[in-house]
Structure formats: C-alpha cells, structure tokens
Prior knowledge:
By secondary structure, the protein is mainly alpha-helical. The protein has 3 helices and no strands. Helix content is 83%, strand content 0%. The longest helix has 28 residues, at 3-30.
Amino acid sequence: MNWSRCLRQAHRWISIVFTLTVIANFVTMAFGQPPAWVVYSPLLPLFLLLGSGLYLFVLPYAVKQ
C-alpha cells in the first residue's frame, strides 16, 4: 500500500470523526452551555484535515514535474 493511498483513507476517516464531533457539539448545545472540551473537540480533526487535504491537493501538481 503506497503512502498516497493510505493518506487518502486516513483523510476520509478523519472527515467522519470531524463530522461526528460537530454533530456532538450541536447536540450538547441544545441542552445548554456545553463544556469547553466539547466545543474545542472539532479543532484537532479539522487541523488534520487541513494538513492532509493540502497535501492531497498539491500532490498531482508536484508529480507532474
């Protein structure tokens, strides 16, 4: 399994985790003020998505050289 394929799969799974943390954030907000760890929980998957997404975006342009 090559690096690009593994990173694409990880990017997909991280996006699922990010979606679930955002949903959990909205659900807890429905019951009042959520704790800080719930509010900030989507940030880690978001930064991981940013890094992997930028890499996957630049990869085709870097390979064409």
